[in-house]
Amino acid sequence: MKVSAVRQALLLIALALVPAIGEAIYFRNKVSWQSPIPASELVTVEQAQSWGDNVIWVDARPENEFERDHIPGAILLNEDRWNELLPQFLGQWSPEKRVVVYCSAQSCNASRDVAKRLRDEAQLKNVFILDGGWEGWLKNKR
Amino acid sequence: MDLPSRSILWRIVALIIGGIFIYAGVMKIFDPVGFANDIDNYKILPWPLTVRLAFYLPWLEILCGLAVILGLLYRGGLLILTMLISIFMVASVIAKARGLDITCGCFGHASRYLSFFGHLALDFVLLAVLVALWFTNRAQRQEL
Amino acid sequence: MNMNFLRLIGIVALTLAQGARAELKWEQTSVDLQPALGDKQAVAHFKYENVGKTPVHFTSVHASCGCTAAQTQNEQVAPGEKGEVTATFNIGGRTGTQVKTVTVQTDDPDPARARTVLTLKAVITPLLEIQPALVYWQNGEEPKPKIITAKANKAAAIKKLDVISSIPDFTAKVDAGSAPNEFRISVQPRDTAKAAYATLSIKPDSPVNTGNTFAVAARVMPPAPTGATPSTPATKSTLSTIRHDLATPAATAASPSQ
Asked: What is the complex's ipTM, to 2 decimals?
């Protein structure tokens, strides 16, 4: 009798796979299969790096700081030259990428402001802020 | 062929329990990512596994709920539901012990209306009912 | 008698102590500015006076962001001397309510008074508010026109907008919008077969020259990379190795946010 219950259970377990797989196929492009989307807009350096090529880095710092050094591949987009830099950035963006904005450290506001404007004005989804900023990136490199 | 318990009372109980699990499963079907985040809050499983379970478990719940209501694969359904509830209770206690505040409702999905102990008590009641159904059914079958 | 005498001593001592401390008094530590349309900078003056008996020395004057330059008129302020800290906020492309701070440190022995935070608040109204900043079509999508809304600042009295595309693959047409001072820009690609990118320059006929250029981006996206296929969902695992949870059925029933 007990064996029979287990066999029934195994059958149920197998049967449930069918609709589950169907649903997964239906949602396949809407779900992040490998790593979770952060609940808040903050991502750590590790999380952002785990997204690999799917990330567009945005540097929200003043131009002279960007020129000195920046995250490889990062695009400068700060509020000083917003109207000029925004269309240039949008020329490089694409919907499947995740945007990660950074400024100098944890405490600066520029990344938050730039991220908000990207969401409001350009209506981009998947815009995140790098936890720790440029400082955090440097620390992670060591 | 399994027959559900003959007594009307137990039949009704089985219908209610089955219905509860079907309802719970259906709620989760519509938002698999939300459910995945709920599971992820417990910080027990890695995300890739969590997200796949989030698609699978609700259907398992629904099928087992149906099994209990229809009396088909009845004991298998009871067995799985019992195990699911038990595992969930264990996970809740572990999360609480680790200081994870899951019931605060901060993430929007966890119940805002029940405290941790309220949750646990409810699960315990469900567990008790499932176990009772199991033994009632066993008694019925032995009478046959 | 004795009590009064003690009180007198106390008051004299306190007054002497007050006078001995250096003290910088600020006329205002928070300034609200309303820069005019087209201003590139907003300048705030924070006036101070040394009401103490000893000179005050500024050890640092430091703004919260690179967009604001701040300096003090005098490094050293003699007793009785007045001066000001000037904060120059470079507006750039910023809009809305902007709050910038300048932190000033002096050599006052009292740490609470040595550090003062001066706040500059500026409300910036843009000449044009344009939304969205990007219109795009996927490869193969029907090349229907998409609309960009431009809201002009009432004070600027803009009658007309000229929109010029950087490449001929996109055309733009401007119509009056549903509200006064509103414009509808209708953008359309020639075709969506190949990737394209254009900057649409938006030139208002306003007499106010803000020096700010307005532009939006129009794009036809490159063909999407092959959709990521999910790896097989959880395969049947033995019951003992699964540790999972399910949101309590009753809990999900109770929670309305499902």
From this structure: 0.82
